[in-house]
Design goal:
about 220 residues, globular, two-stranded parallel ribbon, Sulfotransferase_dom, Sulfotransferase domain-containing protein, P-loop_NTPase, Rossmann fold, mainly alpha
Length: about 220
């Protein structure tokens, strides 16, 4: 932590910090902009399955076994706690904690909620929104180049540059960090009972409107 703080303090330009901690665990400062990004919980879960299997460590094998005939992985996702020892398994409760704490502050001018579905539908619109939040403007040509650089195919094609710790052997494959970028891979992969358990948790903790947004972004189930 002191090393990270020292690097941040030494920066002369605008600083950007990423955290996996929900908003109720972060220091709140009116001088900062908090950009909170969400994805359909089941899409996030299935993407995370791919992600941990791309890490050359056995740390996650208990929660994410390669041969999972008994449904261990989805059970950890559904039964895990928001702040428990299994936080690295990214259970549904943890995602809901992120959403609830962020949405509780969404009326503040420096807290904004973004959704992966909206980004994929309108990447240019996402850039415009972030630019407005940060008070940054670019020429039309520069903006077009920035948007192109942020496309999935460009990042996957230059994975050593864009993957976390790219080129350092942290992943089995830097390109696989950008596996597909698509949604809905969970369709046909879960049993009716598993889907019913997921629905029950979502309906217990979220209003219908909040659930639609958390799963599908601004366009809802459409």
């Amino acid at each position: 932590m002191p090393e990270v703080a020292e690097r941040l303090e030494a920066m002369q330009h605008r600083r950007s910090m990423k955290s996996h901690t929900p908003m109720d665990g972060l220091p709140f400062d009116d001088r900062a902009q908090y950009i909170c990004v969400f994805r359909h919980p089941l899409d996030a879960h299935f993407s995370y399955r791919k992600h941990v299997h791309n890490i050359p460590m056995t740390w996650f094998d208990t929660w994410f076994p390669e041969d999972d005939a008994d449904g261990i992985t989805i059970r950890h996702f559904l039964d895990g706690g928001a702040e428990g020892f299994d936080g690295d398994a990214m259970p549904l409760a943890n995602i809901l904690q992120h959403y609830k704490t962020a949405s509780a502050l969404a009326e503040r001018p420096n807290v904004s909620l973004f959704h992966y579905a909206d980004m994929t539908r309108d990447l240019a619109g996402t850039f415009t929104r972030v630019s407005d939040l940060l008070g940054i403007s670019h020429t039309e040509t520069d903006m077009e180049q920035l948007i192109q650089a942020a496309t999935f195919n460009n990042m996957k094609g230059k994975a050593e540059r864009f993957a976390p710790s790219g080129g350092k052997g942290f992943f089995k494959s830097d390109a696989e960090f950008f596996h597909s970028g698509t949604s809905g891979k969970w369709h046909g992969k879960l049993t009716n009972d598993e889907l019913a358990a997921y629905d029950a948790i979502m309906d217990e903790y979220l209003s219908p409107e909040d659930r639609k947004w958390l799963e599908y972004g601004s366009e809802g189930a459409a």
